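2024-03-11 09:14:02 INFO queue: dequeued item Tetratricopeptide repeat protein, len=223
2024-03-11 09:14:02 INFO validating residues
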Amino acid sequence: MSKKKPAVFSNVFQWVLLIAGGILLTFILLSFGLQRWIIFIIILVIYISVSAFRPMYIIYKTKSLRSIDRYVARNHKKPIFGYSYALAHGNERDIEESLKRIMNTYKQEDMYDVYGSNLALFQNDPKKLLEHVDNISSQEYKDYYSGFAYVMLGNFDRANEFLGKLRTPWMIHALKAFAALKRGSQEEFRQEADQSVSSAVGMQRYVLHHTLNRFETVGFAKA
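2024-03-11 09:14:37 INFO prediction written
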């Protein structure tokens, strides 16, 4: 897998900005006559809050693919982020290996079977996908991956039954995009893929963006 270097300049700039802000805040608080130990506690609390909030915001809320990509690049050695990194910067083998690594690391039922479903999807194996679906406890994820399996089998009527049960916008549009690609409708695929990505935030947005791009360029759905 090609290793994308983290944005060093961006990281340094963020640290410089944080330190400069801390120094400025210190002088402001000193001007109000606060004791140094109180100022130290205030600065420490702010620093911890900012350090904890930013990763959470990137993972769950941001719509910036660039910000997520930088975060993923810095954390690609962790199994979960390794999968996202492989989607963006690796090849099919990298993706499969990263998914297997997650499955070997996290044995919880839903974690194992959701990522196992993704692996079966990339391997174009609807039978294996349905085996994982049986073990997923979340009903919506069960319906979501069932829809993909039946699209892969060419049974669009059955896939539409599961599509009708979905309530999460990014899931609905992702499944519609996959079905459109399977039918050979490139324009419809692109419309639904764009809507799916625009409906998601955080890591889900990033994973969808790169997954759907791979469907389009590599052609998993066409097999």
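2024-03-11 09:14:37 INFO annotate: Residues 72-222 form a domain with the Serine Threonine Protein Phosphatase 5, Tetratricopeptide repeat fold (CATH 1.25.40).
2024-03-11 09:14:38 INFO item closed
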